[in-house]
Amino acid sequence: MLELVNVVKKFNISGNKEDERTALDHISLQVKPGEFITIIGGNGSGKSTTLNIVSGSLTPDSGKVTINGFDITHMPEYKRAGYFGRVFQDPMVGTAANMSVYENLEIAYARGRTHKPWKWGFSASHKKYFIEELKKFGLNLEDRLNQKVGVMSGGQRQALTLLMATMRQMPSERIIKRDYVRFCEGNKSKAKEEVLKGFKDAKEERKQALTALNNESLSKEERKARKVEIRNEYTSKISRFDLTKQILLLDEHTAALDPKTARKVLELTDKAVRDNHMTTLMVTHNMKDALTYGDRLIMFHLGHIILDVSGEKKNKLTVEDLLKMFEDADKKAEQ
Ligand SMILES: Nc1ncnc2c1ncn2[C@@H]1O[C@H](COP(=O)(O)OP(=O)(O)O)[C@@H](O)[C@H]1O
Ligand SMILES: [Mg+2]
């Protein structure tokens, strides 16, 4: 579970006390695993600041951010990158313009998954996977793997950024072990014992299977296929310990697109979130989208959360209801 506890963030550009702006005024939020939250609120109400604090682009003045109780408030952004995928409003921000679609995907795929940048593989198996995923988008991006991203349209770039933010490669064994202990709920030393034993057992079983294979008389093809099977069995055993699911942060990511492309990217977003059971925070200025998508809706106003609804309550809300709440909140603030 992702949690914000009493987060305060102030900005002061000029250095004068009078110019101080409270962007977030004691924000607390508990996000359940797999929850899809849409976030609305007027300009400057603190939506982007919240996402920036979650991702580590900003540090709060006070309060904390935790994942399963593990405090990440002061963890640098690059170290958190493996836990978050982001798509921004500006299609130019999420991708590297002078790199190809394929290169962008490879870099995203490796993000936070290994301690060793030189191990970032450019492999044929990745390529096949990327092509499959790109095909699902129906934007013919799969035919443009070697094209530089800089020449693509805003919609294509946003779709690509979305894929980069939702793709997930299994982390290295070292990271799986570390994060299993880091993000376990409860006893850490017990968790450590558990994960070490799990890895040891899986390795032992793999060794036995490979030894048994050596004593069998099989054709070259059969042997190769069996080896793949053994490797997959091993991977599935250790993947049980892979606790960290990527959290998706979307900040008005369809706002710069034409209505038709925006619709398409939004549908792709919803599908990616559902297919991957991703915990998602989606900021949008479109109230209809905020009501249509997601399981829970949050409204920000002047650095406060003034509405937090889910389920049946959210389903019953209308755009008119939301507009009325905005107006009432503004009136109250003026008084
Ligand atoms: N880097 C910054 N420097 C100064 N003020 C900022 C900065 N980022 C945000 N703010 C201020 O904090 C408040 C919240 O901004 P933001 O979170 O971007 O709002 P939203 O995304 O809801 O439009 C606004 O008053 C904004 O002017
Ligand atoms: Mg914003």
Can you offer a commentary on this structure?
The chain has about 325 residues and is of the alpha/beta class. The protein has two domains: about 1-95 and about 245-335, Rossmann fold (3-Layer(aba) Sandwich); about 175-240. The protein has twelve helices and ten strands. A six-stranded mixed beta sheet has the order 6-7-8-3-9-10, with helices on both faces. Strands 2-1-4-5 form a four-stranded antiparallel beta sheet, covered by helices on one side. A hairpin with a 2-residue loop joins strand 9 (about 295-300) and strand 10 (about 305-310). Helix 5 (about 155-165) runs parallel beside helix 9 (about 260-275), helix 6 (about 175-180) runs antiparallel to helix 7 (about 190-215) and helix 7 packs antiparallel against helix 8 (about 220-240). It is globular and about 85 Å long. Mean pLDDT is about 90; it is low at about 115-120. Magnesium ion binds next to helix 1.
Could you give a quick summary of the protein structure above?
The protein is α/β, with parallel strands linked by helices and 335 residues long. 46% of the residues lie in helices and 19% in strands. The chain is globular.
Oligomeric state of shown chains: single chain
Which residues form runs of ≥5 with pLDDT under 50? Answer: 115-120
Fraction of residues in β-strands: 15-25%
Q: How many individual domains? A: 2
H/E series: EEEHEEHEHHHHHHEHEHEEHH
Mean pLDDT, rounded to whole units? 90
Defining key terms:
binds adenosine-5'-diphosphate, 46% helix, 335 residues, Rossmann fold, 12 helices, 6-stranded mixed β-sheet, 2 domains, globular, binds magnesium ion
